[in-house]
Amino acid sequence: MDSKYGQRELLCEYNLSTDFFESKNIIVSDLVPLKDSYLLTTNIGALLYKKVLKENEIGVLRDIIENNEFLRENYEVLYEVKNENDDQFYFLKLRSDFQGNMNSIDCSISAVNGLKKFHLKTKPVNMNLDNSIFKEKLIKHMKKDLYKIKNYKERVDNIEYKRGFNKVFSENVDDIIYRIKLVIEKLNETHIEKALICLCIKDTSCHNVIHYENEGLFIDISDSYLGFRSINLSEFIDQCIRYFDYDIERGKMILEEYIKDIDLTENELILMYLYFIYPEDIIEIITSYYDCMESFNEEIFLGKLSKRLSLKDNKINFSKLIKEFYIDKK
Questions:
Q1: Which terminus of the chain has fewer Cβ atoms in its 10 Å neighbourhood, N or C?
Q2: What's the CA dihedral at 157, 160, 161, 167 to 10 degrees?
Q3: Which residues pair with 93 in a beta bridge?
Q4: Residue 120 to residue 198: CA distance in whole angstroms
Q5: What would the pLDDT profile of 29-74 be if each residue is shown by its tens digit?
């Protein structure tokens, strides 16, 4: 619930009155709140109703759609509106409002086919997205993580009697540091072909997917970026299998569907292998706890950390599958 409706205050800023929609000749029969927007079922089809949160967001969105044949067929920016506070919103026309059930492997397969087309049909030559993610940026991010974790370790090491979150962190921090260093080292050794850079989805979470004629479409694509398709695929697979304790067979089925049409290179597969080794999810919880980014509640944070740590071996086992069944056979 918290992850899906992560920005509840922002959702309250939307004008949801019948008069407002009718002024745009829109009759709403149903609406579903998302993280920071609404999915509408209307007389003119499915619409994403979203507040502009970044400068030139609509211009970037139009550029993203224009440079991707698949997106041009499935998305259209219809209206741009402002409220009484001069806040800007837009309506994005979608093919469907059916979100499906991502617990179903069929929906996951449908969604990965949509992701595949998202990657295949991009023409990134004329695109200039500020949030592009390349190898150097990945390494810089990881080095920053390493610096933070070492600082937290130093702070906790000075506590004589460790309890709760501090105790669990102290027991696992050396392994976290080892895995960060390992991934940085391997990433430095891996040559990434820039020709394989493509348009990627920022929000690969299950509730950001709709289904149309057995094909998944991502609802909010405004945060799309230029990056590596194998990492984006890894993020998607992670979203699909983490709540199934990183079920290897489930993940393998999704990966096999993707590579039916895209022959991932050895280095792309190495990126996937490193993704599932890197403790990104654990680092996020630790950082949020020690930097108090969320309202402070040790029990909640300890529960989250313990859950992630309990899945660590399963996640690493999935990385081993990628190495043994795909990388080693290249």
A1: N
A2: 0
A3: 47, 76
A4: 8
A5: 999 998 889 999 999 999 999 999 888 888 889 888 888 888 888 9
Per-residue pLDDT, 130: 60
CA distance linking residue 280 with residue 260, whole number of Å: 28
Q: Which residue has the tokens 């309202």?
A: 295
What is the sign, positive or negative, of the torsion defined by CA atoms of 32, 39, 201, 58?
negative
Return the SS3 of 50. strand
Taking the CA atoms of 268, 226, 73 and 66 in sequence, report the sign of the dihedral they define.
Answer: negative
State the first-to-last Cα distance of the chain, in angstroms, to the nearest integer: 42
Which distant-in-sequence residues (6+ apart) come within 8 Å of 245 by Cβ? 311, 314
Confidence category of residue 256, pLDDT binned at 50, 70, 90: very high
Could you read off the pLDDT of 182-211 as tens digits, one per residue? 999 999 999 887 777 888 999 998 889 998
Whole-angstrom Cα distance, residue 317 to residue 325? 12
- Beta bridge partner(s), residue 42: 28, 45
Structure tokens at 222: 């405004």
CB 93 within 8 A of CB 44: yes
Q: What is the pLDDT of residues 261-302, one digit of tens each?
A: 999 999 999 999 999 999 999 999 999 999 875 557 889 999
Cα distance between residue 69 and residue 77, in whole Å: 15
Amino acid at 55: E
Q: Tell me the pairing of strands 45-51 and 76-82.
A: unpaired
* Token digits of residue 8: 């509840």
Task: Give the residue from 143, 160, 164 showing the smallest Cα distance to 283.
Answer: 143
Q: What is the mean pLDDT of the chain?
A: 89
Q: What are 94's two structure tokens?
A: 């979608």
C-alpha closest to that of 221 among 199, 198, 196: 199
Task: Considering only CA atoms, give the Rg of the chain.
Answer: 21
Exposed / middle / buried, residue 75 (Cβ in 10 Å: 0-12, 13-18, 19+): buried
